[in-house]
From TrEMBL:
It comes from Lentzea xinjiangensis. InterPro entries: NAD(P)-bd_dom_sf, SDR_fam, SDR_oxidoreductase. Gene3D superfamilies: NAD(P)-binding Rossmann-like Domain. GO terms for molecular function: oxidoreductase activity. PANTHER family: SHORT CHAIN DEHYDROGENASE, SHORT-CHAIN DEHYDROGENASE_REDUCTASE FAMILY PROTEIN. This is Short-chain dehydrogenase.
Length: 285
């Protein structure tokens, strides 16, 4: 059965790969991007199965207008994919106010406003699915990526709550948590803050030099084609998981981080209990 998808950030990376694979299998795609010309080749090949609109997700009014127009013109959208985003690298002190604001507006607020814009339409048609391109960076953290992690940890919390809100309406949610993948996310496409000498020899400075291309790159095992195929396959399932961790590095990093937090939580059990009010202490387990 042909399905219709709405995807942000389709000019490159996972958004482009998802769009290509979906069109090839016969689905319709409402593709948005800041650079629509990047989709000219797909429009030539697939005709009116590719619906296009220019969109910067930091413009909330435009998000609402484009989402509303897509639903009105296409009739039904089955899956809404929030993919637009980018990486910002540098210690928090090294970033400008504008860089901080833009990172949050794109990766976090833009995703939230897309969800808010699409929810009434999905609810009105009796259901659908949101797919959020998050990151294993929503479970782990590295130096020189504090603002990026703030957006990814933030969107994880948003969807953890919103998934429960939306379930009664037949609207599912899947958070996709890839590791490092062979897209244009890192070297060459990275946005860097202005380096401060105080950080040069620390972990932040070392990672900065990796993303600036001065040091050898980190291992990048993720195959964008396989990741996109796994996302599509998950969306086809009625029992799609809330979280979809993709990549051997994502699995290893994520399980280690979660186990470390669980160990730390358990180590603080007695202290946690000791701060309960006196009339609850006798019933604490």
């Amino acid at each position: 059965m042909t399905r219709t998808w709405f995807i942000t950030g389709t000019s490159s990376g996972f958004g482009r790969e998802l769009t290509e694979q979906l069109l090839e299998r016969g689905d319709r795609v409402a593709a948005t991007a800041r650079r629509l010309e990047a989709l000219d080749d797909l429009a030539a090949r697939h005709g009116d199965r590719l619906w296009r609109a220019r969109l910067d997700v930091t413009d909330t009014a435009a998000v609402r207008e484009v989402v509303g127009r897509a639903f009105a013109e296409l009739g039904r959208i089955d899956v809404v994919v929030s993919n637009a985003g980018y990486g910002l690298f540098g210690a928090a002190e090294e970033l400008t106010d504008e860089q901080v604001d833009r990172q949050i507006a794109t990766n976090l607020t833009g995703s939230i406003q897309l969800a808010r814009a699409a929810t009434p339409h999905l609810r009105g048609q009796g259901g659908g699915r949101f797919i959020q391109l998050a990151s294993i960076g929503g479970q782990v953290a590295f130096p020189a990526m504090s603002l990026y992690h703030a957006t990814k940890w933030g969107i994880e919390g948003f969807w953890e709550s919103a998934a429960a809100e939306l379930a009664p309406f037949g609207i599912g949610v899947t958070l996709v948590e890839p590791g490092f993948a062979r897209t244009n996310f890192g070297v060459g496409a990275a946005v860097l803050g202005a380096a401060l000498p105080e950080y040069a020899d620390g972990p932040s400075g070392q990672l900065r030099r990796v993303f600036s291309g001065e040091l050898p790159p980190l291992p990048v095992p993720g195959d964008p084609q396989k990741i996109a195929a796994a996302i599509i396959a998950a969306a086809d399932r009625a029992d799609a998981p809330l979280r979809l961790t993709l990549g051997s590095d994502a699995y290893a990093l994520g399980t280690a981080a979660l186990q470390g937090r669980l160990d730390a939580m358990r180590a603080g059990r007695d202290l946690a209990r000791s701060t309960d009010a006196d009339d609850t202490l006798s019933s604490a387990n």
